[in-house]
Amino acid sequence: MRSFFDSSAFAKRFIEEEGSDEVDNICKKSTSIALSSLCVPEIMSALNRRLREKYITRKEYTKIKERLIIEIIDAIIVNVVPEIISESIVLLEKNKLRTIVSIHIASALLWQPDIFVSSDKRQISAAKKSGLKVKYVGKPLS
Predict the structure, then answer these.
(1) Is residue 61 part of a domain?
(2) 82, 86, 88, 91: CA torsion to nearest 10
(3) Which listed site, 20, 42, 43, 130, has its alpha carbon 20 to 30 Å from 11?
């Protein structure tokens, strides 16, 4: 199974929260996993916020960062190319989305996964309207 994860879903591999078990199961069943090139910086931003707000310790942050780097070695990273920018504009015109959310969907549309995984309900709705098979995995990283 070819699985595309947005940042909100893939972060659940590293921070235990609602949907983490489901994300782990999808990863185990996947023959290939793809992420937008924006996914890792977006996850690191969320982790830095958690560190600043003292939800995680420096040691936990370092451990999660190291695990993230190891896990993405085998992932397919979909770079932002002109086709993705064009498609994200179309998505923004047809849906009420944030820019980065439209780029995740456009990246998935270019890669053509068997399933698009997210914990963002608005993103799930737009991805489904765009023809992607979707999987909602709990609320986003808080």
Answers:
(1) no
(2) -160
(3) 130
How far is it, in rounded angstroms, from Cα 31 to Cα 29? 7
CATH number, residue 16: 3.40.50.1010
How far is residue 109 from each of residues 58, 71, 103, 123, measured CA to CA in Å? 36, 23, 10, 13
Q: What is the C-alpha separation between 111 and 36, in angstroms, rounded?
A: 10
Give the pair of three-digit tokens for residue 104.
């995740």
AA identity, residue 42: E
Residue 108 covered by a domain: yes
Residue type, 124: I
What distance in Å separates the CA atoms of residue 26 and residue 39, rounded to the nearest whole number? 17
- Give the range of the structural domain holding residue 122, as residue numbers without chain letter: 2-39+75-136
Count of domains forming the chain: 1
Q: Is residue 57 in a domain?
A: no
User: Domain for residue 116, yes or no?
Assistant: yes
Q: pLDDT per position in the chain (142 positions), as tens?
A: 999 999 999 999 998 889 999 999 999 999 999 999 999 999 999 999 999 999 999 999 999 999 999 999 999 999 999 999 999 999 999 999 999 999 999 999 999 999 999 999 999 999 999 999 999 998 765 5
